[in-house]
């Protein structure tokens, strides 16, 4: 199984990254830091006769990586009770990817396993649940299998590594990645 980790944080070495790295410890993975990529905001032309215009950024490169992997891990901090801006911008552009004739994005994503890794400092076991549901809706729409999620508590970088419950849940979920 080929594993891709998408890091949605605006900083390196944050809690969502640490928790995703704990989840994938010892596994071979491709890692993409969305903050290092240029992703242009979507200009919605779904209903325009000419359709979407080509965009010169890194979105297509990332989409091709998604299509080449079997398991996708979406790691994001809980920012204002939702996913990070970088992650949301990337997912919003899927509207354009769905209409791109160079690849069949929806069928290519169907059947892939998806995992959400979310870390936040403000009671994430409760306050991140709407984000978990949002990911579930996204994955269901794309025909992906929502294989699980891990919610970790941590504000300052590294604090999530003190969340024994989150680390234990990540260890259990890692077994799925090893199958």
In short:
This protein is of the alpha/beta class. Helices cover 37% and strands 19% of the residues.
Biggest sheet overview? 5 strands, parallel
> What would you give as the CATH superfamily?
Flavodoxin domain
Low-confidence stretches: none
- Strand order, largest beta sheet: 2-1-3-4-5
Strand content: 15-25%
The number of domains is 1
Describe, in plain words, how this protein is organized in 3D.
The protein is an alpha/beta fold and 179 residues long. The chain has one domain (3-177): Rossmann fold. Helices cover 37% and strands 19% of the residues. It contains 8 helices and 5 strands, in the order E-H-E-H-E-H-H-H-E-H-H-E-H. A 5-stranded parallel sheet has the order 2-1-3-4-5, sandwiched between helices. Strand 1, helix 1 (15-23) and strand 2 (29-33) form a beta-alpha-beta unit. Helix 1 (15-23) crosses helix 8 (164-177). The longest helix is centred in the C-terminal third of the chain and has 14 residues, at 129-142. The termini are close together. The model has no long low-confidence stretch (mean pLDDT 95).
């Amino acid at each position: 199984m080929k594993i891709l980790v998408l890091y949605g944080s605006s900083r390196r070495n944050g809690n969502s990254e640490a928790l995703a790295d704990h989840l994938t410890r010892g596994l071979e993975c491709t890692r993409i830091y969305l903050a290092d990529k240029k992703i242009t905001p979507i200009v919605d032309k779904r209903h325009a006769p000419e359709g979407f215009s080509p965009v010169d950024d890194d979105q297509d490169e990332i989409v091709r990586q998604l299509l080449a992997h079997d398991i996708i891990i979406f790691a994001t901090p809980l920012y204002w009770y939702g996913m990070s801006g970088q992650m949301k911008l990337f997912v919003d552009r899927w509207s354009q990817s769905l209409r791109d004739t160079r690849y069949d994005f929806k069928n290519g994503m169907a059947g892939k396993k998806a995992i959400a890794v979310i870390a936040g400092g403000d009671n994430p076991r409760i306050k991140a649940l709407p984000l978990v549901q949002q990911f579930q809706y996204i994955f269901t729409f794309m025909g992906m299998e929502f294989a699980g999620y891990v919610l970790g508590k941590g504000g300052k970088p590294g604090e999530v590594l003190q969340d024994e419950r989150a680390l234990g849940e990540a260890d259990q979920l890692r077994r799925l990645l090893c199958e």
